[in-house]
Amino acid sequence: MSFWEYANPQKFMQLSRKVMPWVAGASVLCLVGGLAWGFFGTPDDYKQGSTVKIIYLHVPAAMMAINAWVMMLVTSLVWLIRRHHVSALAAKAAAPVGLVFTLIALATGALWGQPMWGTWWAWDPRLTSFLILALFYLGYIALWQAVDDPDTAADLTGVLCIVGSVFALLSRYAVNFWNQGLHQGASLSLDKEENVADVFWFPLLVCIAGFVLLFLALVLLRTRTEIRARRMGALLARERMG
Amino acid sequence: MIALLVRDMRLAMRAGGGFGLGLAFFLLVAVLVPLGVGPNSTVLALIAPGILWVGALLACLLSLDRVFALDFEDGSLDLLVTAPIPLEGVVAIKALAHWTVTGLPLTIVAPVLGVLLNLPVDGYVWLVVSLALGTPALSVIGAFGAALTVGLKRGGLLLSLLVLPLYVPTLIFGAEVVKRGAEGMATGTPLALLAAITAGAAALLPFASAAAIRINLR
Amino acid sequence: MDLRVDQLAVARGGVTVLEGVRFALPAGRGLVLRGPNGIGKTTLLRTVAGLQPAVAGSVSVAPDAIAYAAHADGLKATLTVAENLRFWAAVYGTAAVEDALGRMNLAELRDRQAANLSAGQKRRLGLARLLVTGRPIWVLDEPTVSLDTASVQLFGDVVRGHLGAGGSVLIATHIDLGLEADVLELGPFKAIGPRGGGAGGAFDAAFGGDFA
Fold first, then answer.
1. Which of A115, B132, C36, C78 could be disulfide-bonded to B14 (CB atoms 3.0-4.6 Å)?
2. Which residue of C has its CA nearest to B14?
3. pLDDT at residue C210 above 80?
């Protein structure tokens, strides 16, 4: 059986109904476990004190904010090339989730920045990039809202997503060029020496897994809702046609 | 193709507003900023490059919603799509016409407004060079936004929301050129990047814009 | 120079409105589309003109053969009559402006701004555009709207002249232009979308299947 069969709304609904409770449950387990472990089971940082623990929200949210856009890019491409409707709806469903993750990353960043840098907001490259990312999400969502015909909306947002991805990358580069910044280097990487210590690492990994699962669960739920709404629209249209 | 360029420029001239509105807006920004910030000439010299670039960018944005909307309303966009000119060419020509009536005049008057904002002497050349290189990108990117929103009710506001994030790299590199130029530093890197954005956008975005128009018309 | 339409299905706003449309339009012939409002005549003409994709079926025609005229004339209010026509002549690479002005009885209005024309005069200018395209197949959507009897007569003569010169015309109209043309009656059609997702069908149609 081919992977593309799940692009059929019917197959997708059947599969997602079975999978979703497990994904949602696993997400709750990981988040509760990971956050509890992170907040209560790790020592305070010798420089940053207990404020460092916001990392368990900040880093996973920031990662998923970017990954959500990447997922939207992939699903948009699938829609534009293979015309699978579920793919377009999944992109639509992911956008508000991505926006909320972006806002969480910005808000937790501000809360963390206040005690560390003495300011809620700084025009640091990473913060600025996330602000711009939030604007991209807003524009994408607004375009979906503004276009009445779903086919047209899916096509236009798909084109916007592709062009937007290129310009988002350019902006990231431009912003780095514009200001070297206060933000610490990447907290997680596979090859760097300056990674966070193992005690922080493992609960962080659990939290990241929790956020990934949360994202999946929310996107599945929202895609199901979109499919149902679209189905209602289709049935109503058919009724009008007699 | 040339006929289309001539027609669009003639329309912009006769409708009035096309030329004047963007320039008037640019002038207002340059007058209002010192009134808001205060007359301290060191402060003004410091922010002049950024203000001039932001002003030019917003003045460009002002007339974008007319690029395709007018042709859409009177039906000529349909006729242009079925005409023997590739739609990508139509988009590129319309962006060029938009630049000729907004970006080019903005570039020409910018040094005068630079005086109002106390731009340092070394900055003037770079102001003109960066605007001349960067404003075509603003028109091409703006034409893409206009293509996405053509035919939408209240498309103007949405157009700004879609286009402003896309303007970020152009703005950053453009203003950086003037800033470095005004401080007497080397401007090669941001200037090359600005030119790269303009060249890339002019070469590739008309295809995306044409696709968006075809989607919007069906 | 034939236009062939086979098993064509067209959609408006994601809903299929016409299905199984087939006809052939040889050179020198006219075909009149008739049918009640909202049946999909405009959608069909736009699909034939290449402005929107077909849901199913095919339109086969030589490239660059069709000239399309819609409800809106695509005139620029601030340009004069002659400037409007000269623009389209330049786009299509022809030089028939004077001839077109004469045949649509617009020669005296040549230097007037399009904004100052009456509705009927604008319509005549819009139709004069067809003459400067030099295209053999005209696809016309209600061309006689706001024309008076004399102008309808005039336009009928122009279309007959076009057919006589080996052109052809596909026209949606309720008025008898005095053409020797076949008539295609478009009947109401019940939209039934393809089941399931995947390539093809209109967006909503993909969600019409039975599922939980």
1. C78
2. C78
3. no
Q: Give the angle B202-B203-B207 at the CA atoms, nearest 5°.
A: 100
Mutate to test the interface with A, among B160, B168, B179, B207 (most CBs of A within 10 A): B168
Inter-chain touch C91–B4, beta carbons under 8 Å: yes
Chain A contact for C208 (CB, 8 A cutoff): yes
Question: pTM for the complete prediction?
Answer: 0.89
User: Domain segments of chain A: what residues?
Assistant: 64-181+216-241
| Residues C103-126 pLDDT 10s | 888 888 889 988 888 888 888 898
Domains of chain C listed by start with CATH number: 3-186 (3.40.50.300)
Using an 8 Å CB-CB cutoff, list chain C residues near A7: 197-198
Residues in chain C within 8 Å Cβ distance of A238: 191-193, 208
User: Looking at beta carbons, which residues of chain C come within 8 Å of B77?
Assistant: 74
| CA–CA distances in Å: residue A157 to residues A91, A153, B62, C124 | 9, 6, 23, 39
H-helix or E-strand spanning residue C14: none
Residue of C nearest to B86 (CA): C91
* Long-range pairs of C152-157 with CB within 8 A, sequence gap ≥ 24: C152/C177, C154/C104, C154/C105, C154/C124, C155/C104, C155/C124, C155/C127
In chain B, % of residues over pLDDT 70: 98
Which residues between 99 and 118 in chain C have a beta carbon less than 8 angstroms from any beta carbon of chain B?
none
pLDDT-derived band at C199 (thresholds 50, 70, 90) equals: very low
